[in-house]
Amino acid sequence: MTTNQTPIYITTPLYYVNDELHIGHATTTIYADTLARFWRAAGRPVLFLTGSDEHGQNIFDIAKKNGTDPKSFADKIVGKFFELWDALDITYDVFIRTTDEFHEHSVQELFKRLKQREFVYKDTYRGLYCVKCETYKTDKDLVNGLCPQHQIPPVKVEEDNYFFKLSAFTEKLQQMIGDGTGRIQPPSRANEILGKLREGLNDVSISRTKFDWGVRMPGDESHVIWVWFDALINYISALGWPDSEGLPTRAIEGRARHDAPTPVGFAPFPHWWPHSIHLVGKEILWHHSVVWWSMLMGAGVEPPKGVFAHAWWTVEGQKMSKTIGNVIKPLEYAQKYSRDALRYYVLRAGPTKEDADWRQADFITKYNSDLANGLGNLVNRALNMLHKYFEGRVPAECSFDEASLEGSRQGLITLVNGLEKKLLDRVAAYDLSDALEAVWEIVRKANQFVDESKPFKLAKDPTRAKDLAASMYAVCEVCRVLGAAIDPFLPDTARRIREQLGLRDGSLLEGVGLTQMIARLEGQPQRSKQPAAQVLLRESLRWGLLKPNHQVGKPEPLFVRIESEPST
Ligand SMILES: [Zn+2]
Fold this sequence. Notes:
The chain has helices spanning 23-41, 57-65, 70-87, 101-116, 170-179, 187-198, 227-232, 234-237, 268-272, 285-299, 330-337, 339-349, 360-390, 403-428, 432-453, 455-458, 465-485, 491-500, 514-522, 537-540, and strands spanning 8-16, 46-53, 94-97, 120-130, 135-137, 155-164, 183-185, 204-205, 207-208, 224-225, 276-281, 306-310, 313-315, 318-319, 356-358. The chain is an alpha/beta fold. It folds into two domains: 8-310, HUPs (Rossmann fold); 360-540, Orthogonal Bundle (Isoleucyl-tRNA Synthetase, Domain 1), CATH 1.10.730.10.
């Protein structure tokens, strides 16, 4: 099977440094990380960017309240971002901060180009501004005079501002979204944007004079550039636009997890742009489609290929808020239940197209039934039985003498051989929950297969030795496939399965590890941090790669059942 070899540039929003990150931020980032890991494993060139948004009045005010300066305040919060992403093992390639000098340079350059092309003009702004959104509001945007998202009244501002001629792009945007060149996912969100476009676009003020925490306006230093305008540009400044000086990776304080994955001899910007997918929460889709695409078109830069706006979590049926005190903290979950348990719940039950409700009881149920009793139990009993009946050595693959069992075995083989296509299709459509369902269909079928073929009974009957071997090979081979298939979703668990199966670097395909082999063929730099056992999906999801006589390791429970916990 040939996989799509187009580069893919996956981004999260730059998270605002006004506060610590909650489950909403972790959800976007886990989605992005899963996509990045999946497409890497599928052999596609991937660049994964995240970072921090550090300018604006909000940060200026909070820093002052905390008796510090904005940069020191940002440094402190950014430290917590790193802590969280390390704890969740997020494999971003680049972490950008909007206070990075190269970024500020790109922002000023884009502004200059818009001005040259007459998409920027100066005028007096009179109106409303929500400091928490860092966005201008009209009366239409308010509910009972308050910002509906933050429940605070917007402040009245009147100042001489630079304006961006957003209104000039209305028709172009409608056309792009209509014909799919500007792809907004899911389609229901595209319709929301089209609806708002039909109401017409106002020009937006893109400068402020009341505080100085931001990128200076070139040619008019009394203004700083609107924080959203500044932050959105990160997606191209991170690629070195416009000078193509190269990716800001290891050069900056060791902030990148990997060496830059841009192939040798390619400039980063033309290599990765516009093959990007911006993952965002639905509340910032407007900025990431209408505003961002217009800014790029105005400056003569091609807009990105797509944006995926996911919905929101509620918590036990309520809006998640600091006031209610029900904010879900991802680090606490990772520490208490393991990061894969957190990833599983987010990927399986999280808000993609529709809002999703975070329910603790559901978290525990899914953990116990899918992870502990489903996957964990399967791997554990497969390995225990293999040790008991075959001294931990995989028997040669064979068929059952008994027809109905052979039918079940063939059913498993068919499911396994169909998995790659299902994963490719579902991940390409951002249906990560459905992708996991394709994996768990196999987990359930394999557990049924063990119950049905009863190796423990076959082992007692010497005339059924062949059926015992048929059963054990099939179960172990399913475990091997699962150890590869879940790697992008639950990387720790996948690694532990492979370790327990005794699979080391290259052992699946003999000799050199496939990842290194392909990297060499493509002239790409090797990724020292990438687990060597991560072989490409299309190679590892084929049935029948486990070699006869292969010695497996010691079984260890993958997930300990959560018996009960006091309700909080
Ligand atoms: Zn607001």
